[in-house]
């Protein structure tokens, strides 16, 4: 489908205007960006958490992408979907699409899959781009590419010449027409289904010109925070890029906290900001001083509330504050300056046309209503340069000929808002017309369904914390509409203790965590009688989205697994540019400088300690911190927690503030280049997954981080790479394939067919290890270490209380029963022994490139029932029950408890992912793990393979009881010659009995 009048798919509704600057009168966005990049090649175009990309670099990467898109026959009018978060990669994708001449179709990854599918189908997109943190959607059929800040992972074959001159470089820019569509924006349509609106180059350029006239210039730092559904989405991006300004990307977590937002705005020296009305209202209540250093603040989407504007003007007035009004479907804003303090609530909301735009208040006969007489508001000017995609009847209903225009073809847009003109020339908004249909792209604000008098009454009587509840999520603060939304809101209020709950609120923003998510999931299952997957709690950004998923699940229940092995295999493609220079070998001498990730994690802290003690190297630790001093403090805290810290370590540890999920690991180009020459080895201990989060939330950190580290390992000089994975990376192959032994050299593809039933952690670690395999095949010296289940520190006899089996045992002890799960082998190891083994093996160059299982010998491994028997032996009476009966008892016990350690894991125990079995049940039949490579590598070191004796487990259990992490044992009273806590197994029915001996049940 080509979006343009030539094929009749959409009706062009351009309102011609001769007032654009000469340069911009006929040029498209792509051409204008090319010109801007040539004028300011070395200026920073985009910044994200310290990472930057210049206009020169952005142009090169976008040009490379455009060239590849043209090979796929992308040109004028051809839609290209872009699934991306706010990021540098997103900007590369947008510019690349426009330079190729295509139509940008933005997709928000936080939207439900069904909604995204509808968007793609509506425009008939056959090319879809996504950023590296997001998978190819399962519903998409067509060409797919992954946009990365440094390369186009799927099909780019072009490098970036470092000395290329942007003023002379050949361009692949495809000329187009200024009245062609440039972008398709989506807004809620009937019943919430997305409705596409095609936006022309001319309409966007008009917005940019207005921003320029309002003060936006090349020296500004423009905050990038708007998602695709918001009016400011295009204005933020193109307003900055076509002026040569700097886009500063605000991370999502910063937007979720008013104080963090205020601090980030000041730290980044933001000078220009575009906000939705809802977000402005939220910030004005919690941090009205956040805008005191901003030069230009534009509020889009709906009229401001007087209390919110007054709070900001009193506490933190920006130099210029504009309230932009206008439906997204018009690409039109009107504004009133708020530099002076409003004298009263009647000062708002009013609108005044900007530049050459016109606003009419018309009666039912489309005649101008006299001043003071209510009518309906119509907008015109150059803004309405678009049409509803594949809905010509809706276009005709919302747009009509402008009877007052002196220019042929003039159109005006019916807003559906009541208004009246005032003697001073401004227009006062009175609320939403009850008879009007919802126009495409119209955003709604609190009270938009009421008249002005009602709004004023509410504004003067309602408590401020009920009127403008700070939220930090894009969208207007509307109360729940549907019955499902209302029922969910009640559950949120009961669990989180917040009041009120709005449609655009986010569960985790309101105080939710993994434990709360599990409780909410259990309540939803009972309330709605649905088997909604727990991951929906994590993947639904708002109450509104979650309600849609509940409704969808009730209409058509789906199986729990959402990730297919084929899709994960698709993600496991290593960037083709990551390969060592032919003939270059890693250094034979001991490393003088080591790069370590995960230093504040449990295993990472021990590994850092051992590397400091057993090498002379300087250890550079990648860590999420504000600066090096903060990073060192976090590292010291982590080691001190386990009695590992020594002040002498300070001279050997160099914190490197950054992020595994960030572009260039969160480092700027100069830092990364210096690091690539300095370090001699990489230890990646930061790929530990989270069993509770779904795959896509972990992909950027685990998969993307691993790929960036592999890139670093072969940049400047070749460095040995030591990757810490997990023994569970294959998934439950024992259950599905009947394997009795997993060898260190077995192909990872053994686990590919069953990846869909794995946890997000196992899935992401499998993909990361596949990247490791690809790197090894290209000649990188990559070693993989797969530890078993770490229970604690054997040297000190201190257990790791967060270990899953200890959480499970705690719930079992409180319930007085255990699940009958035979043949569930447990590969228990201690953290100190695993760390020592990794350190020893990695220091011997002869072992580089191997795979090492850091597990106990098969004869010393125990199964889960034996583990439970150790607890019973210590005085805990535990009845063995069939799984379903045990699960019902445990769930009934811990569900009401607000913070039980096992509660977050209940979905893993309850959700049936295959043949009526939960994820835990599928680990029956866990095979033994061969450790030949490990034993061979450790033979000369004097270290044994990581052993864990039963005595160590008993020590851990006793320590957990002493610390209060496990309930104390009950006194063993002898009744009639028998212990009260023991029962003969011979008299117990099958699948039931007391666990009281060390004999397997």
TrEMBL record:
Q: Where is the Carrier domain?
A: 479-554
- Pfam families given for it? AMP-binding, NAD_binding_4, PP-binding
Q: Is Lyase tagged as a keyword? A: no
Q: Where are the transmembrane segments?
A: none
Composition bias (Basic and acidic residues) maps to 471-481
Coiled-coil residue spans: none
- Matching CDD domains, A to Z? SDR_e1
Name of the protein: Nonribosomal peptide synthase
According to its UniProt entry, this protein's organism is: Chondromyces crocatus
